[in-house]
Amino acid sequence: MNKGGGCGMNGIPEFDNLQTLVDVLTNFIYICSVEHSATSFPAYDQYAFPPNFAATLHGHPDDAVIGLNVSMPDSKEFFSAISVMKILTLVLTNSLGNYKCTYLKSMDMDGRIFVKNFQQNLEVIRKEIYDRNADIIKGNNKNQVQEYTYEWLLPDRVLNSISI
């Protein structure tokens, strides 16, 4: 513990006003929902191409180029890494704004109204992203490099929390 910050820990602000508490809790919520979803769920797609998963490659970056085939993991290492990525990218909690009935029932009316407004805002964002994606797909020419649609941070693909 360090006396240089809030809670006796360096880097944590002093909780001496409501705004500081709101800022810290907002960061926690963002990290445990949006940031986690953005970094974890594309992992399976990313690492399905073995050279993208550096942890399974053989050799050392400082070694002379030894060739891709020598650097590649064997089939057991590859499928083990893919299995781990598949498990880590399973969706095990509800999407952002979709809460279990037990949580909603325990809220007061103001809380329920806040959640309803939040869900409506998420729906507007979801529709804007889907519309933009439809325009991207419509504008793509199969004879040229394709522009990718935006999917990873669609509100219905962002989780309420981390579940590993």
Helix content: 40-55%
Straight-line distance between termini:
27 Å
Low-confidence stretches: none
Order of helices and strands: HHHHHH
Please report which band the strand proportion falls in: under 5%, 5-15%, 15-25%, 25-35%, 35-45% or over 45%: under 5%
Rg over CA atoms, rounded to whole Å, is 22 Å
Overview of the molecule:
The chain has 164 residues and is mainly α. 51% of the residues lie in helices and 0% in strands. It contains 6 helices and no strands. The chain is extended and about 65 Å long. The chain starts with 17 loop residues before the first helix and ends in a 25-residue tail after the last helix. The mean pLDDT is 83.
Tags for this model:
164 residues; mainly alpha
List the helices and strands and how they pair.
Blueprint: H1 18-40, H2 43-47, H3 68-71, H4 75-88, H5 101-106, H6 109-139
Question: What's this model, at a glance?
Answer:
This protein has 164 residues and is mainly alpha-helical. It has helices at residues 18-40, 43-47, 68-71, 75-88, 101-106, 109-139. The radius of gyration is 22 Å and the shape is extended.
